[in-house]
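Form 7-S
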Amino acid sequence: MCRWVWFAAAAVGLAAAATAEEFCENDIALLDTHFEGGAFHRCDVRDGNFVITIRPEDSKVVVPMPWYAFRASPKREGEAVVLMGFADADADRFWPKVSLDGTNWQRMPDGAVAVSQDKRRLALRIPLAEAPVWIASQRLLTTRFYDVSTLSLAQRSDVAVRLLGRSIHGRPISVAETSPRAQAVLFIGRQHPPEVTGALTMHAFVDTVLADTELARSFREVFAVVTVPLLNPDGVANGHWRHNAGRTDLNRDWGPFRQPETQSVRNLLADLAGRGIALRLMLDFHATQATETHLFYTQRPEDGDGSAHAFAARWFERVRQRQPDLEFIHRPSKSESANAKNYFFDTYGIPSITYETGDETDPDWIAAAAPVFAKEMMRTFLPRSPN
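Output:
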């Protein structure tokens, strides 16, 4: 796409608009956000082109993760030109994705996208025929995805699914737990709504740990598997950049526990302790701009007695031995933020790991790589694990 767009894109309103608009239309198409996850701040038509402003859900958002999702419904065949202006974020944090059914997604072609020199404006050419076209910063993975997954788990005789709590807007937060054991591992997902690749990683990882294989069955004989796949349903449903409906980054609320979503996990932990179940590992699944592979933030060798770092080192060494060409990054680190990684290590002294996947990582790569990490995690815990 050429520079013809930028004189028009300069008019995209980066200043706060008086009201947010959920749709706009011209003689070619109607653009709207009337579906779960749909979001932009404002949409106008100028000189025949669509002009969209992208802003965070509230003024407290400090991490720029510019989520947007809209649908173009054709009035006639043609090409819709969409000019997008981004407040407080780089337009190319996410490469636009396109879908013809809202379910199957692919990257928009390079020739259909242009980014301004200052990275605050984006221009799209969207060919239109008869069917609607969905455009989003990341593929839509809405609460329905989790409903289907949870229903599937609930049909298993060895998994108990229950309501853990509710979000500020009353959406359910579910937990799935395998048969009770003296020890447990805990997996948490989707604290931050746009981190879709992290959600895909968690799905593949958990599926492997719950699989009907000799290794997974042996693991579940020793450990209860406890999974909270969707901690921020309000943020996912409303297309938030970062926060829940309480204007809070949930991954900065571990310890303060001011939000009902993190409070629900605190109650879960109390329930596990009350049943005499000891937590041995926590994995918190996220996505990152920094890498196109997997990135693991773990404890440092000097943290605690060193056992948490030692576990991670053994785990990742097993992955390297099993599949030497699998690229990933291990980054021992320490911060002062009230995130899940810090809370679970400080409270329980266990390996507490932030497991991140690159924003633009191919879903097929995720589907192949995440099970390798899941299998080697189980083998690291089981001294005589089956192959």
